[in-house]
């Protein structure tokens, strides 16, 4: 455990970059081998590289925002540890328990909560909407975030670090898991039922998260989880659908020029608000699944 702590205390920037690039590469290859949807077979206008190009642009803007603001994260973590502020500073735990507790709280406060808020608060939704406009969800979709949303999510992460009292090794560990698992649960793959059930006991799977990208309410407002699947079950926002019946995108921006042109995507938060349409669905709600 101490070796893990030491590694993430001093993780080189090159290793963090490798996690980002390596994750996309591995899941990209998996999608080619065992895809859930063969987009090119039912969408003649689909071009995999052009689609990836848009999402990689937003990946780069996310990286830039986080690099620029990284000093705030470092200062917040160091201050919390030095001043004894936060859950992990108030309760002395073994390293393994500190890691598990910290990851759970960081995932709840830094990922699940802002994601839920972005679906409930109109101002926040205007920025998060760009993520949901993707009609061909795959591993590159994981980082399809408007720069404004990247700033919003960074703010929630700062608060989570402060409340948790997380040292920087734990913050880096959390960020590494968050990046890789987000790429995994957006990947265009369909796990066998047994694998989904097994992995779903500890992490969010593609089968679970794909449901969140269904194009209409109420399904869009479910399955907010990123690393751990427990929060949606606990707060009653867990939903199940057959993966092959999911329709990606968002009902307020159905036209291709609205969701597949970079210039328009950047402008969406500042355009007139469009309330969601929604429709009744036959998906099975399965809180105890």
Radius of gyration: 19 Å
What is the typical, i.e. mean, pLDDT?
Answer: 92
- Percent in helix: 55-70%
Strand content: under 5%
Order of helices and strands: HHHHHHHHHHHHHH
The largest sheet, given as strand count, sense and whether it forms a barrel, is: none
Task: Name the features.
single chain, 289 residues, mainly alpha, 14 helices, 61% helix, 0% strand, disordered C terminus
Give a written overview of the molecule:
By secondary structure, the protein is an all-alpha fold. The protein has a domain at 2-193. Helix content is 61%, strand content 0%. It has 14 helices and no strands. The radius of gyration is 19 Å and the shape is globular. It starts with a helix and ends in a 22-residue tail after the last helix. Residues 281-289 have low confidence and may be disordered.
In summary, what is this structure?
The protein has helices spanning 2-9, 13-33, 39-42, 48-83, 87-90, 95-120, 122-132, 147-164, 168-186, 193-199, 206-212, 230-234, 256-259, 262-267. The chain is mainly alpha-helical. It has a domain at 2-193.
């Amino acid at each position: 455990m101490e070796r893990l702590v030491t590694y993430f205390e001093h993780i080189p920037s090159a290793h963090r970059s490798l996690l980002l690039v390596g994750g996309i590469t591995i899941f990209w290859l998996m999608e080619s081998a065992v895809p859930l949807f063969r987009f090119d077979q039912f969408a003649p206008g689909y071009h995999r590289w052009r689609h990836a190009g848009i999402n990689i642009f937003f990946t780069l803007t996310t990286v830039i925002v986080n690099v620029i603001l990284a000093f705030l994260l470092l200062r917040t973590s160091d201050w919390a540890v030095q001043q004894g502020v936060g859950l992990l500073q108030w309760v002395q735990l073994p390293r393994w328990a500190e890691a598990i507790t910290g990851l759970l709280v960081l995932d709840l406060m830094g990922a699940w909560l802002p994601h839920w808020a972005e679906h409930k608060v109109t101002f926040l939704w205007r920025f998060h909407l760009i993520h949901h406009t993707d009609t061909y969800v795959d591993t590159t979709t994981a980082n399809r975030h408007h720069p404004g949303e990247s700033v919003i999510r960074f703010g929630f992460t700062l608060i989570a670090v402060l409340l948790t009292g997380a040292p920087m090794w734990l913050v880096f560990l959390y960020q590494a898991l968050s990046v890789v698992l987000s790429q995994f649960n957006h990947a265009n793959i369909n796990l066998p039922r047994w694998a989904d059930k097994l992995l779903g006991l500890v992490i969010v799977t593609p089968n679970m998260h794909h449901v969140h990208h269904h194009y209409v309410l109420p399904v869009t407002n479910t399955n907010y989880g990123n690393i751990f699947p427990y929060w949606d079950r606990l707060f009653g926002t867990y939903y199940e659908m057959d993966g092959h019946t999911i329709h990606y995108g968002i009902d307020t921006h159905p036209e291709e020029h609205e969701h597949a042109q970079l210039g328009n995507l950047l402008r969406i938060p500042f355009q007139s608000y469009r309330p969601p349409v929604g429709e009744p669905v036959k998906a099975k709600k399965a809180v105890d699944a």
